[in-house]
Amino acid sequence: MILLDGKKVSNDIKNEITEEVKKMKAKGEKVPHLAAIIVGNDGASLTYVASKVKACERVGFESTMIRMSNTTSEIELLDKIEELNLNDEIDGFIIQLPLPKQIDTQKVLMAVDPDKDVDGFHPMNFGKMALDMSTFIPATPFGILELLDRYNVETKGKHTVVIGRSHIVGRPMSILMGRKGFPGNSTVTITHSHTKNITQITSQADIIISALGVPNFLKAEMVKDDVVIIDVGITRVADESSPKGYVITGDVDFENVSKKASFITPVPGGVGPMTIAMLLKNTLLARELRHK
Ligand code: GUN
């Protein structure tokens, strides 16, 4: 079994980006600037955004975090987005999801300038991705592709099963794994809450990408020998013995599934750090595109 070490690979990517930033500085160019909007006080979302800001500092990017209250109206958020769209200092920005109930997420994502949409969530960028056009690929799927690429995991002709159809991970992942090229050329099955007899499907999978958010959902009996496992789950499970009062738990019963797997991502330290590294990569791309 080979561990797909997202912590190490994301560090390599951050080092590569740091070198790019140094070159920009040496040429007297402005460094990339990422902004993140966070609405409300969700603990996990605040932690993720703080990690994104910290990662910016680490590679030499500028960053701006914009906090808005839980009672923010849709109009107020749309105004803030327009401000960032027009602000020439900002190369790319994200709106951390989920948003409070009073806000229509799709409407908000459609208000982002597609050239600054480093999350790749705008329908124009999502459409471009589906049509194999060059664009911002959503950071988590992008990170998974990068892991498969750097570990040379064969995907051509393999049966890839995606668990979950979220707009952020499952849906784009199912498109990307079926695209021409590497990683890609897989035969893809996408499963979700209405899928019947999921074990029958997962037990035929060469590659399983689980983005369900149910701790320890995928058991050893549900997979075949030598399966490749990508665990996108990051659920906080209460644990009084841990200093934070919770532990981050993946969708996969790692202890038992890892005994059968050829490659597997750990949680934490697998897909999570890759998401942040690829957001930085998209921000670098946004910076380059805007100053071409
Ligand atoms: N919430 C969970 N994952 C993500 C992500 O990749 N981007 C944003 N903006 N919000 C998220």
From TrEMBL:
Matching Pfam families: THF_DHG_CYH, THF_DHG_CYH_C
User: SUPFAM superfamilies attached here?
Assistant: Aminoacid dehydrogenase-like, N-terminal domain (SSF53223), NAD(P)-binding Rossmann-fold domains (SSF51735)
Q: Which GO terms describe its biological process?
A: L-histidine biosynthetic process; methionine biosynthetic process; purine nucleotide biosynthetic process; tetrahydrofolate interconversion
Record-annotated Tetrahydrofolate dehydrogenase/cyclohydrolase catalytic domain positions: 4-119
Keyword tags: Amino-acid biosynthesis, Histidine biosynthesis, Hydrolase, Methionine biosynthesis, Multifunctional enzyme, NADP, One-carbon metabolism, Oxidoreductase, Purine biosynthesis
| Residues in Tetrahydrofolate dehydrogenase/cyclohydrolase NAD(P)-binding domain copies | 138-288
Q: In which pathway does it act?
A: One-carbon metabolism; tetrahydrofolate interconversion
Q: Name one GO molecular function term.
A: methenyltetrahydrofolate cyclohydrolase activity
Q: Look up the domain of life of the source.
A: Bacteria
What this protein catalyses is: (6R)-5,10-methylene-5,6,7,8-tetrahydrofolate + NADP(+) = (6R)-5,10-methenyltetrahydrofolate + NADPH; (6R)-5,10-methenyltetrahydrofolate + H2O = (6R)-10-formyltetrahydrofolate + H(+)
InterPro entries cross-referenced by the UniProt entry: Aminoacid_DH-like_N_sf, NAD(P)-bd_dom_sf, THF_DH/CycHdrlase, THF_DH/CycHdrlase_cat_dom, THF_DH/CycHdrlase_CS, THF_DH/CycHdrlase_NAD-bd_dom
What is any one of the record's Gene Ontology cellular component terms? cytosol
Asked whether the UniProt record includes Nucleus among its keywords, one would answer no
Q: Where does NADP(+) bind?
A: 164-166, 234
Enumerate the CDD domains for this protein: NAD_bind_m-THF_DH_Cyclohyd
Q: Look up the EC number in the record and give it.
A: 1.5.1.5, 3.5.4.9
The subunit structure is: Homodimer.
Family in the record: Belongs to the tetrahydrofolate dehydrogenase/cyclohydrolase family.
Q: What does this protein do?
A: Catalyzes the oxidation of 5,10-methylenetetrahydrofolate to 5,10-methenyltetrahydrofolate and then the hydrolysis of 5,10-methenyltetrahydrofolate to 10-formyltetrahydrofolate.
Task: Give the protein's recorded name.
Answer: Bifunctional protein FolD
Q: Which organism is it from?
A: Bizionia arctica
Per the UniProt record, the lineage of the source organism begins with:
Bacteria, Pseudomonadati, Bacteroidota, Flavobacteriia, Flavobacteriales
